[in-house]
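Entry 14. Structure prediction run on the chain below.
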Amino acid sequence: MIMMILEYEKCSSKGPVMRKKSISILLAAVMTALCACGANSQEDKGMGAENSNKEISMEVANSSEESSVATDNSSEDLSTFASGIKTEDDSEGADTEFVLNDEIDERCPLLIESKRGDVEYGEFTHATYYSETCGLERGYSILLPADYSEDKKYPVLYLLHGIFGNEYSFSSDGENRIKEIVGNMAADELIEETIVVCPNMYATSDPNQQPGFDSESVLPYDNFINDLVNDLMPHIESEYSVLTGRENTYLAGFSMGGRETIYITLQRPELFGYVCAISAAPGIVPTTDKFMTHEGMIEESEMKFADAAVEPEVFIVCCGSKDSVVGTYPEQYHELLEANGADHIWYEITGADHDNNAIKSGLFNLFKQIAYDKSKS
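Output returned:
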């Protein structure tokens, strides 16, 4: 078995910094067979044009010849946007062992993403809450630990879906291995047992409004920060036995969810201690892609934490190197964050598309960083 440790940059206003301390924990277990879920990779094109001149400003990429995903929603599998392209088993790119340190592993280890006979996993259930922000009853899926008890308190991960998704996008999608990653790492005592909340990120006050590729249709996603902070998080904290405080509150998202994860983290860094934005979609700052023109929520110079004195313990931005949907936009976010002195980790998953391999990698590395940080305390 090969142990792979990859270098990464922890970016700050002072340039690349490597954290030096590490401890080694070797994990070994009998692996169960992985189920391959077939899907064809899309053409290697993206929302963003190649940033050939390496300028920090967001690229304009609306040329029709660069389109790999049609704007006619009826002809598309919308789960591609919501929870990722499904790929065949790429087990050759993953290890069965890993070292617990602050390094990034491009691939989620097989030991962590596989269903194991010695581990009992929680199951997703559905619930609702009333949103004052939207004036509506809204739904969410929640993954509780298999032995959840009101006598114990648990950290919480809020996991955000992509465009056209809803609260079921991740809970019904087994290829992203959320239950396995969380359950296995908890069973191996790397992380605490963790609650995962998958909300409906489309925070609209009109129950008939539908998402789409235009400014008005996208606005409810940008409104989710208000619903999350003012309605959903207080509900979760009152209805479930959760640990509070930023050190116990995690945020991650994919595609449109990755975009909102970055925006929410920059605006409210005091709320989330550990963050991962996976394959983040364009639109935080003004830009034009092949789908639409984005007015942007903030300017490029504002791609930094609203409170400079408060930063997440870990802030990861990652993307597949062959992402056919968002292209180079995640890397452009990284460059803007770096230029504005916002401390974060950036890495690419070699060969991954806008797919479940990117999602598994991002979630694993988020929890690995959490495990490493908490092993030192």
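The domain at 122-360 is CATH 3.40.50.1820 (Rossmann fold).
Filed with the rest of this week's runs.
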